[in-house]
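Before the break, one more example. Copy the sequence into your notebook; we will annotate it together after we see the structure.
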Amino acid sequence: MKVLQSFQAHTLPEHIRSMSEQEMKRRVWSIKRKLGKRLYMPGHYYQKDEVIQFADATGDSLQLAKAAASNKEAEYIVFCGVHFMAETADILSAEHQTVLLPDLRAGCSMADMATIQQVERAWPKLQAKLGDNILPVTYVNSTAAIKAFCGEHNGSTVTSSNAAQMLEWAFTKKQCVLFLPDQHLGRNTAYDLGISLSQMAVWNPLSDTLEYEGEAHNIRMILWKGHCSVHEKFTLENIKQVKANHPDVNVIVHPECSFDVVQSADEAGSTNKIIDVIRQAPAGTKWAVGTEMNLVNRIAQQEAEKNVFSLNPNMCSCLTMNRIDLPHLLWSLESIIEEDPHHIITVDTETKQLAMAALERMLSR
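Here is what the structure looks like once it is written out:
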C-alpha cells in the first residue's frame, strides 16, 4: 500500500513572494470566482484566519470528512488542512476529482507516530497474546495506510466527535480494541464508557512491547503510544494556575489532552463541542480553553462578550497546520489556472478501497 504525492522541487515563485497581502487576497478571490463550482476548498478550524476566510466549508475532522464525501461536483479540492485530511478527501472523492494540498510540509506529528510497518509488526504479536479478540480502530488523524489496515481487519475510523459511539460499536464486535494512534483520546473515551484504567494497556511501537502489568485476558483497550504535540502541552499546573488567577473560570479541553488534564477540567469535548459550549454560554463568563491557538483566538473574537483565552498562556499554534498560509494557497490555485496543478495527493486504489471500508463504517452511523 502506498500514497502517491506529487513533489515539486521548486519553491514559491518570485511574483507571489513580492506580492502584498492585499494583492494576494484579491488574486485568490479572483481565481475562486473564475473557477466557480470547479473548485471546492474545505478548511479545518485550526487554519490561520488568512486562509480560513476563503474556505467553502469549515469544520472539525468529522464535518470535513462528511463535506468531502458529499461534494461530487468540484473538479479540484484544495484542502486547507494537513496531509491525512487531504488523503481522506481523496479516498472519499470521485474519479474525476483531484485533491491538492497547498504545502506538502503540512503534516501531522500524531499521524506520523503510527506507521504501517509498525502496525504490521505489532498485530501478530498482539494476536499471539490476546487471540482473535482484537478490533483495530483508528482516529482519522492517521495515514491512509493505517485506515486501510483497519478496513481490512473489519475495523473503523473515529473522530473526537464520535469516538464514544464508535467504541461502543467496536465492543459489540470484539472484546478488545487496538486504538490508533492517539493514546489520550482512546484512554479518555474508554474511561467515560466505564472501562477502568486497569483494563487498558499501551503498545510501544519503538520497543515493540506491550506495557501492561496485569493478566492479558483482562485487557479491553490497547492504546497506541502516540499523542498530539499541541494538546499534550496542556498540564495540571496550567489548570491550577488559571483557577488560582480566575476562581470563576470554566476550563474546557479537547480529549486529546492527557487523562489527568481531562479529569481536572470542567468540560471536555471535540473541537465542535468546544465551540458550541462557549457559544451557548452566558455573556460575561470566563473560559480557559485547552486546544489549538488559532481556534482559541477565533472563538475569543467571535464571542467578544465572554472572556475566552488559552489554558496555557505560552501556547503556540499547530506548526504543521500553519504551513498552509496565504502565499501557498495562492500558489496552489494558480497552478490550477495554469493547468499544471501541483502538490496532488493521490491514494492508490487498493489502499483507497480498504480505507473506504473503515471510513464508511464510521460515516454510516
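The mean pLDDT is 91. The longest strand covers residues 134-139. Try to locate both features in your own notes.
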